[in-house]
Amino acid sequence: MPSGDMTRVLGILSSLYPHVETLEEFADHTVFREGQRAVLIEPTDTTRFISFVRGVFVCTDKTLQDVPSCNQISTVPELLAFVLNNTKRKKKRNVLAHGYGYTFQDRDADQFKFHGEITQSAAYIHGSDLWKRICQRLGTDVSKYLLESCSLFVTVPPSSAFQVCGVPVYDRVSMSTGISRFHLGYKRNGTTRNSRGRSEVRNGGWEFQRSGGRKRRWDGGRDTGKRKGEEVSLGGKREREEVEGDGCLPGKRRWDGGRDTGKRKGEEVSLGGEREEVEGDGCLPGKRRWDGGRDTGKRKGEEVSLGGKREREEVEGDGCLPGKGRWDGGRDTGKRKGEEVSLGGKREEVEGDGYLPGKRRCTQREAPTVSSGTSDRKHRTLETNGVKRPVEVISLTKGPTQSLQVFNGSSNVEPVSAEMERLRKPMEQLSGPGRPLEAVMVTIAPAESSKQVSDGTGNIEQMSMKTGHRRPAAVVQRPVEEQSGPVSATVHVEGGPSWRTGSFPPLSHSQSFIRTLGMLYGGRGMRRFLLNRKRKSRDEGPRRLQGRDLVRLVFFEGVAYLNGAERKPERLPRRFFTLVPLFCQLLRRHRRCPYSKILQRVCPAVGQGDMASLLPQHSAPHRVYLFVRECLNAVVPSEFWGSDHNRFKFLSAVRNFLSMGKFERMSLAELMWKMKVNDCDWLKISKTGRCPPSELSYRTRVLGQLLAWLLDGYVLGLVRAMFYVTESMGQKNALRFYRYQVWAKLQELALSGHLSKGQMSELTLAQVTSLPKTTVISRLRFIPKTEGMRPITRVIGADAKTRLFQTRVKELLDVLGVCVRSSPSLLGSTVWGLTDIHRVLSSITPAQKDKPQPLYFVKVDVSGAYDSLPHTRLLEVIGQVLSHVQEELFSVRCYAKVWADTHEGLKKTFVRQADTVASTNMKGFVMALQREGKVHDAILVEQHFSTDIHGKDVLEFFTQMLSSCVVQFGKKSFRQCQGIPQGSVASSLLCCLCYGHMENLLFPNVSQRGGTLMAGVPQYGCVVNPQKVAVNFPLGEGGSCPAGVRLLPLHCLFPWCGLLLNTHTLDVHNNYGSYAGLSLRYSLTLGSAHCAGQQMKRKLMSILRFKCHALFLDLKTNSLEAVYSNIYKLVLLHAFRFHACAQSLPFGQKVGGNHSYFLNLIWDLAEYTNQLVRLCNKGLSLGCKALTGSLQYEAVELIYCLAFLLVLSRHRPLYYHLLAPLRTRKRKLEGKLVGLRLARIRQAATPKMPEDFKAIRA
């Protein structure tokens, strides 16, 4: 093992890969086809080689099954070239191929030669003698397997690693939580209920936490806790009570030895003796008797026997028709609906869960498929060679079309042991014996016309029964992480509705999303509305849409059908015949609907006036909803809804969607929540008869496609046609809905005002046509402000010249960044954020606190800082900055970093770094980062490395960019003569360099005369807006100030850049005035998550980390009173955020349904805040358990109790279960914190609701 502590890196890899081992361990259990064992380390090897081999981790999803030959049939460069060419040709993801320029034109090119510049990872292997020796000893086939199918990580002491090959590890790190409804957290200490009301599990127990509020304690072989739903004991005598949950009535069940004498809902299987089954989950009461290996009773639904010869009868239940199935040894000769899993022998399967009839053959090599969701456990008996053994069957289901069965039995059972040992053993090596596994399967395309097949290697694929094409299903097994971590090794496949993406069959409802971004920047009228478009046909030409066209667009081909896509299938299925007249009726109603009259009545607006009067004329989301509701009622036939219940549920979803923020989304699962599928008669082939689960699943999918089209196609299209939807400055992510007449007038006034400043000149048609083909055209749009419109210019496009232009702009930013790092004086007094402000204040605050003296503050706002910069001055400034580096060569490295956070789980970030030093390989780069203290306990993945950037080329590009800046607005084109685009990534640095040059030139020392900025600096385009100037001293004679200038007292809280600075002590506070009148709902991007509770926790934790900055919490620069006040206001605002998140939980979830989880979340936030406070005050003693120091943990926790009680008590019915524990904990903490410490907290919490918080809307 390499020197250093790689424990945390190994922990990260173990949480993401089922199999993690060193290269030495991989070679030790590798036996070649010839029968000899691989020998990687020989006695004569050097210590350097041995240490290197032991420092390479091999990570895979499955073990190597068929070990090939040990022969060496190619050299390392030839093998590397073959792997690179093959990877690029097959379009696979591999770190080795990042940036490799393989061309697809020459298919006959030599596959054993490099056809482009190789990356640093490939060069690292190509030029290493150590890798050459490894490839020689393992053979070509095994080396190819390692480079192509495995993920290799090389450790870099003392504590980091980098990835050499394989699919990038950051693909496995999801920023959202997993999709399982169960949260399993391992508690190292024992079980107690502490003073805060938090449940803890000790003595190495596991705590089972379910989203509905269930907890279960597992201690050894005995389950001592209580939970809702089914619970299984592995043996022994036990009494258990079941508490109510998920619609189950309270009940008791007694387990005595091998006999189950109690009753419960749903299916129940005993390992021996007699068993009774009671009514539950909509099933009729029934009894079933299990006698030895033979099942002589009857039950509803599907039944599987794992061994022995047995006849089975299925009684009618859950809408299924009676059926009979026969199991004979390892073969099931009967037929049934739904998927059937056999651990051995052959199997036939008929239609079920939305799939068309088909047969499937399952062999012993098929692995159990896994899909997360709801769960139930069953105990059954497996008979092998005449011996009966108990088997635990855990069934998980998510949605109507995905299912899981995991069989867990004795290791002596032949059919089970081979599969379970292969699934369980690697994870036990990583997580310890007895640690539960969570297996997740994400099906890429579950559909009516597809089924799962196995390729013989354990890989599960989706095969379309129409086309025969296969698509892989992502199968990942991993140890279950703690509740606090949002770690997920599952790559969640997400997308839009099928009609828009053309993904048929569609994704599952939980993976299909409708985004509010689809509404933005419309307002072009009804001409481009979907129902007004014409279908292009090769034979007939464009024609108006008909009912049959809409059926195909919504359910089969998608929007591509309008462009003449081939019809698939050629003939509509019989189920959709009834939809054709309904869609014809919808089209007729649409063409007769008076949209304009409805709009003017519901959302009246006047399109005339000045900008000040037009800016407030935006329609509220509720008014837009009323317009959409009236249009839906007038256009959509009532037969589509099936019932008023469904129509009301859809309208409620529309109202919620229109009230969302800019970056939020709604899943199709939320849209379908509580929809009554069987109310829709048009979904039914037969109007009478029963509905089996497979038919119900298919109906649900079809109804989901229709509702997704109604929301994403009709509603969003209607909003885009009638309104211009945009964000606004100072309103966070809230959206404004402007009538297109109003917005057209606003844009006209904004453009005329923009042109009047002489910053752009209009181009004639001849000038536009004569522009070079390499010219990149930017697009201009305006964003509403409080008193005007802000112009935003961006380069938008995906063509080659646009991508090249954006790459060159990034290179400009990189080179300028290197120059600024080497010469910080180029920026003058520029600060880049809170960290820079804290650094500057830390240098002057101690002296001010020791010897206070009067301080004078000035805040100046420059009007149009970006748009007013003269091009001549910009060229002069940038030319001086780049004058010393024109002959230098710059290197740019893009890499990803993955690390583990204690409270937020696995995290990833992407970094782009430029430098002038000679290029180093990835190992040397990681070592340098660790020496500088920038990286520790992390995994790095190189994405791109470039060394061909010259300073003179950057200056030439910048000159060309300024001289040929063409902006398009509508049908007009302009040349920008002054200023720089606000939407460019380099704009901020260019502006700061220009004003830094002005500062160094005009203000080397403070002028005694003053007034320079107020008068303006025209050579730099600097014009001050006096309405935004603030000072704490008089500017004119007699204590007066010019008109519009704000004069503040000498000692005050001075506002600047969202901060409040104490002009006497230099204490820093946050300015919460920007939240006035704004709902915190729009400052958070919540959207739809698989685990809403964990997504909420991750969001609150990440915000807390950014807000708890040393600028506000450092006791070296702030007084103790200021720090306490900052903590209280920060926590109080976080309580508002907590309420906003709780109100946005999907599927009608409430805090009361799992109040223990949310109570523990509050305590976790308090603990995290305490850690962040101590991190900001390293070297200071803030207090310990003996209540010494100036800021104890109990003080932080009491502040949380006070703030959350203040906010949550306003909504008592919602947080009834949280208020009592908070009050109890508050009283205990007040008893501990007495005297000065308690008085300090009460001082910070007075007044309870500060003035700047009273205007905040939760």
Give structural notes.
- The chain has 1258 residues and is α+β, with helices and mostly antiparallel strands.
- The chain folds into 5 domains: 7-167, no CATH class; 226-479, no CATH class; 498-684 and 692-740, Topoisomerase I, Chain A, domain 4 (Orthogonal Bundle); 801-892 and 943-1047, no CATH class; 1067-1253, Telomerase reverse transcriptase (TERT), thumb domain (Tetracycline Repressor, domain 2, Orthogonal Bundle).
- Helix content is 33%, strand content 19%.
- The protein contains 34 helices and 49 strands.
- The protein has a 7-stranded mixed sheet. A 5-stranded mixed sheet has the order 36-44-43-37-38, with helices on one face. A 4-stranded antiparallel sheet has the order 5-8-9-10, with no helix packed on it.
- Strand 9 (215-219) and strand 10 form a beta hairpin.
- Helix 10 packs across helix 11 (579-592), helix 23 packs across helix 26 (987-1002) and helix 31 (1155-1175) packs across helix 32.
- The radius of gyration is 34 Å and the shape is globular.
- The protein starts with 6 loop residues before the first helix and ends in a 14-residue tail after the last helix.
Question: Layout of helices and strands, plus pairs?
Answer:
Layout: H1 7-16, E1 19-22, H2 23-28, H3 47-54, E2 56-60, H4 76-89, H5 120-126, H6 129-138, H7 140-149, E3 151-156, E4 160-165, E5 182-186, E6 192-193, E7 199-200, E8 206-210, E9 215-219, E10 222-223, E11 237-242, E12 251-256, E13 259-260, E14 274-277, E15 286-291, E16 294-295, E17 299-300, E18 310-315, E19 323-328, E20 331-332, E21 374-384, E22 387-398, E23 402-408, H8 414-431, E24 437-442, E25 450-454, E26 460-464, E27 470-472, E28 474-479, H9 498-501, E29 513-515, E30 534-535, E31 543-544, H10 547-555, H11 579-592, H12 595-602, H13 611-614, E32 618-619, H14 621-635, H15 638-641, H16 644-658, E33 665-667, H17 668-672, H18 693-722, E34 723-727, E35 735-739, H19 740-756, E36 760-762, H20 765-769, E37 777-784, E38 789-794, H21 800-822, H22 834-850, E39 858-859, H23 871-882, E40 889-901, E41 905-915, H24 922-931, E42 938-950, H25 951-963, E43 966-969, E44 972-976, H26 987-1002, H27 1012-1015, E45 1030-1031, E46 1046-1047, E47 1053-1056, E48 1059-1062, E49 1068-1070, H28 1092-1107, H29 1110-1113, H30 1120-1143, H31 1155-1175, ...
Organism: Oncorhynchus kisutch
Region (Disordered): 187-383
Protein name: Telomerase reverse transcriptase
